[in-house]
Amino acid sequence: MTIRAVTGDELTAQDVHDIWRIRDAVFAVEQQCDEVDVDGRDLLPTTTHLWLVDDDGITSYLRSFVEDGGRHVGRVCTRRDQRGRGLSGRLVAECTRRWGTGTLELNAQAYLEQWYGLHGYVRSGDNFVEAGIDHVPMARRPSTSALTGSDVPDVASHDV
Questions:
Q1: Alpha carbon distance 14, 26 (integer Å)
Q2: What's the pLDDT at 147?
Q3: What does pLDDT average to in each consecutive run of 10 residues of the chain (160 residues)?
Q4: Which among 101, 103, 116 has a CA at the least distance from the CA of 159?
Q5: pTM to 2 decimals?
Q6: Do residues 71 and 99 make contact, with C-beta atoms less than 8 angstroms apart?
Q7: CA–centroid distance for 47 within its chain
Q8: pLDDT tens profile 91-114
């Protein structure tokens, strides 16, 4: 599978539909998040969406955006029937390849702190609740080494 990368201002209507479809399935249905997913960042030219697809649509997805001078990673999720294949790890590794010369920040669901640690992310603050789920802020500094995406097991989901 090839990673597809599209900036927010280049998304087609079909892309937007497919992206919101996987995020809705994972965050709204499975995790029952209590906050609206659409936050105004998806269509910005400073947002990049990365995903993998199969014949049934997007298998794994994440978005990265620039805000307040920093690069953020979030909305990491994998379709239920594709979990355990390292797909999310491939996408997180692609973020590191593309933007790893600078600091990358994310808000990990707390149970995923160790998983993100495998990618070189470290805790950068106290836990907090977002969308009804316990989160921990994390950052990856440019000098941090990490496993490649294929070395890291897949994760169910993550939300920023």
A1: 19
A2: 52
A3: 96 97 95 90 97 96 95 97 96 96 96 96 96 95 62 47
A4: 116
A5: 0.88
A6: yes
A7: 12
A8: 999 999 999 999 999 999 999 999
| pLDDT recorded at residue 34 | 85
Q: What are the φ/ψ torsions at residue 41 (nearest 5 degrees)?
A: -95, -25
Q: Return the structure tokens found at 129.
A: 């609740």
The Cα–Cα gap between 158 and 106 comes to 10
Cite the beta strand spans of 8-147 per DSSP E: 47-54, 57-67, 70-78, 104-109, 122-123, 128-130, 133-140
Helix, strand, or coil here: 20?
A: helix
SS3 of residue 107 by DSSP: strand
Q: What is the CA radius of gyration of the chain?
A: 14
What token pair was written down for 93? 């590794």
In three-state secondary structure terms, 5 is strand
SS3 18: helix
Helix, strand or coil, per DSSP, at residue 46: coil
Secondary structure (3-state) at 133: strand
In the block, residue with structure tokens 């599209």: 6
